[in-house]
Amino acid sequence: MLKQMFVPPPRLADLAPEEAALISATRKWVMAQRHGRMCPLHAAANQLGALQAARSLHLLLAHVGASWPDPVAVAPPCCPALTHDEATLLGMVIAAHRHSRPVFDALTCEMLGEDARDRIHAAAAAVGHAIGL
User: Fold this and answer.
1) pLDDT at 7
2) pTM over cut 0.90
3) If 0-12 CB within 10 Å is exposed, 13-18 middle and 19+ buried, where does residue 18 land?
4) Distance separating alpha carbons of residues 89 and 133, to the nearest angstrom
5) pLDDT (average), residues 2-30
6) For residue 132, what pLDDT band results from cuts at 50, 70 and 90?
7) Which of 19, 81, 119, 131 has the least CB density, counted as fewest CB within 10 Å?
8) CB atoms within 10 A of CB 99
9) Please, where are the H alpha helices in the chain?
């Protein structure tokens, strides 16, 4: 357990292309949302290559932003490492799309209530499907 606390965060370059695109799109969406220079939906679509995937991500990030117990920590687009929240978000999408609901719930049950988990699970599964994880 103590060893796991000192494991370096995942690196963007070590992720599968679809996973890296999801993290990059999330970072661009957050930047666009914060700075208002570009529509967040279009910022995500530019990274994901599909408007439907960006819509799914847009919905997921809206649910996460409304439900997460603390502000979501997202690194700048140039950062090579993932934040803990980015890694959790990626894990949620993978769990919702590839695995059963209990895997998703195990990842999120300590920080999200049941209603929020239901909404976020559905949105995360849609993102996973849209980007082909």
Assistant:
1) 72
2) no
3) middle
4) 13
5) 86
6) confident
7) 81
8) 13
9) 2-5, 17-35, 40-48, 51-67, 84-98, 101-108, 114-131
